[in-house]
Write a structure and sequence with these properties.
- The protein is an alpha/beta fold and 395 residues long.
- It has helices at 12-23, 49-53, 65-70, 131-142, 154-165, 186-198, 245-249, 294-308, 372-385, 387-394; strands at residues 5-8, 30-33, 73-76, 81-85, 90-93, 98-100, 103-106, 110-112, 125-126, 146-150, 169-174, 202-205, 209-213, 220-223, 228-230, 233-236, 240-242, 258-259, 271-273, 278-282, 287-289, 320-325, 328-334, 341-347, 352-359, 362-369.
- The protein has three domains: 5-111 and 241-308, FAD/NAD(P)-binding domain; 114-238, FAD/NAD(P)-binding domain; 327-394, FAD/NAD-linked reductase, C-terminal dimerisation domain (Enolase-like, domain 1, 2-Layer Sandwich).
- The chain has ten helices and 26 strands.
- The strands form seven sheets. The protein has a five-stranded parallel beta sheet. Strands 9-16-10-11-12 form a five-stranded parallel beta sheet, with helices on one face.
- The longest helix is centred in the C-terminal third of the chain and has 15 residues, at 294-308.
- The protein is globular.
């Protein structure tokens, strides 16, 4: 059997795994296979500085090509995996090639969710998940005066801030009763709702999209209440789904993400999964979680490398996330779901405050707005206050 480590996906998680394996002394071949044509790159700036400045894509690369060459890490870019055969220890590419592996790692990330409404495939409709999405979006944005964004989460609001600062008329359609509902509490949502509105962004809450107007290209959107909004460009930013189809077809257990244990192992011998595409057990939060963050991609990749190298260490992080909108930085530590007490520290009107969430008296999450110190301290405090929960679960 081959001793090669084959990694499907060359994003932040796959790149970190390859690097950690080499740092840990792994000498066998390490091969990354990716359907994109770019070396591993940073994704968070896509909806922020990269969209605003539109620099050379190479500016986002995590490492130059020479780094990977020196580490003897090989890439198959622009290459699609068609099937995984765990019983034979090999994968098959859509071009017919068969590649054996000793260890296989899924680092397949996520795909942007779309909406099953008429006209969704018209020219003038955009998603934002990859460099190539920005390559298409940026020129269209240059020519647009009226921009409609479907979704009031991180990406939707980040793009709204970029487009609004450029002087474009921006409307955000959010189906829920507040923006950022999936990731923050009401106080933080209210701050960002007000901040965007004060800068000219038209936010429509409880807005349900029923169709896209236009024939040759999108010219507007139609809402459930019958209202029609004209648009030169429509961005759908309604979240992401785990790319777990390939794993599921190979017989691996999946549930909106590939199921792994605390060592990033699937139930199949020699097969691991890391990053946004996984769902792993968290004793800290008492459930399986799927995280879409740079922190998770890096740290879970390190945990997988340790397991592959024969030095397994359980992975149960305090997650953290961030978002830049206009001149405000939101930094979140922990997960808010299940909180039973909340406290706002500071005055939101000042533009610098934090919101603390507790469950059973323990701090489980903090939103820090323009307060880097509060964010760093909160990560430490959450780890300390939930340590007893982790230890009890391990006993």
């Amino acid at each position: 059997m081959s001793e090669a480590v084959v990694i499907i996906g060359a994003g932040q998680a796959g790149a970190q795994l390859a690097q950690s394996l080499r740092q840990g002394g792994h000498a066998a071949p390490v091969r990354l296979i990716c359907d994109e044509c770019h070396l591993p790159y940073q994704r968070p700036p896509l909806s922020k500085t990269f969209l605003a400045e539109y620099r050379d894509p190479a500016a986002l690369f995590l490492r130059p090509e020479s780094f990977w060459r020196d580490k003897d890490v090989s890439f198959d870019l622009g290459t699609v995996v068609g099937a995984v055969e765990p019983d034979k220890g090999r994968i098959t590419l859509t071009d017919g090639r068969e590649i054996p592996y000793g260890t296989l790692v899924f680092a397949t990330g996520t795909s942007a969710r779309t909406l099953p409404v008429p006209g969704i495939a018209l020219p003038g409709m955009f998603l934002l998940r990859k460099i190539d999405d920005v390559v298409q979006l940026r020129p269209a944005l240059n020519d647009a005066q009226r921009v409609v964004i479907v979704g009031g989460g991180y990406i939707g609001l980040e793009v709204a801030s970029v487009a609004s600062r450029e002087g474009r008329a921006v409307t955000v359609l959010e189906a829920e009763d507040r923006v950022l509902k999936r990731v923050t509490g009401p106080a933080t949502s209210a701050f960002y709702d007000r901040y965007h509105r004060e800068r000219g962004v038209d936010i429509r809450l409880g807005a349900r999209l029923t169709g896209i107007e236009g024939e040759a290209r999108a010219t507007g959107v139609r809402l459930a209440d019958g209202e029609r909004l004209p648009a030169d460009l429509v961005l759908v930013a309604t979240g992401a789904r785990a790319n777990d189809d390939l794993a599921a077809a190979a017989g691996l257990a999946c549930q909106d993400g590939i199921l792994v244990d605390e060592f990033a192992r699937t139930a199949a011998p020699g097969i691991y999964a890391i990053g946004d595409c996984t769902r792993f057990p968290s004793r800290r939060y008492g459930r399986r979680v799927r995280l879409e963050s740079v922190q998770n991609a890096i740290d879970q990749a390190k945990a997988a490398a340790a397991s592959i190298l024969g030095k397994p260490q359980p992975y149960d992080p305090v997650p953290w996330f961030w978002s830049d909108q206009f001149d405000v930085k939101l930094q979140i530590a922990g997960l808010t779901d299940g909180y039973d007490a909340v406290e706002t520290i500071g005055d939101p009107a000042s533009g610098k405050f934090s919101v603390e969430y507790r469950r059973g008296g323990r701090l489980i999450a903090v939103d820090a707005v323009n307060d880097g110190r509060a964010h760093m301290m909160s990560r430490k405090r959450i780890a300390e206050e939930t340590a007893a929960v982790v230890e009890a679960a391990q006993a």
